[in-house]
Design a protein that fits this description.
mainly alpha, Helix Hairpins
Length: 80
Amino acid sequence: MAAKRDEQLSYEAAREELLDVVRQLEAGGLPLEKSLALWERGEELAQICQNWLDGARARLDARRPGEGPGSADVETEDAD
């Protein structure tokens, strides 16, 4: 059920929850099991954020023909 809910998280919501997880871990004083659970949740949230960013990059690249990854390395040969 959590995976389904996570799929619906916006970038902003995932980022905000991730910041909260980081604050809790940095504050310390948590039992090991709680720390591990927070760390795992942080990893999940970081992946959700990365997926959003990757999707945004792909959309931008698709709208800019000739400016995608590797396009700057392409050289044309003169047909002399």
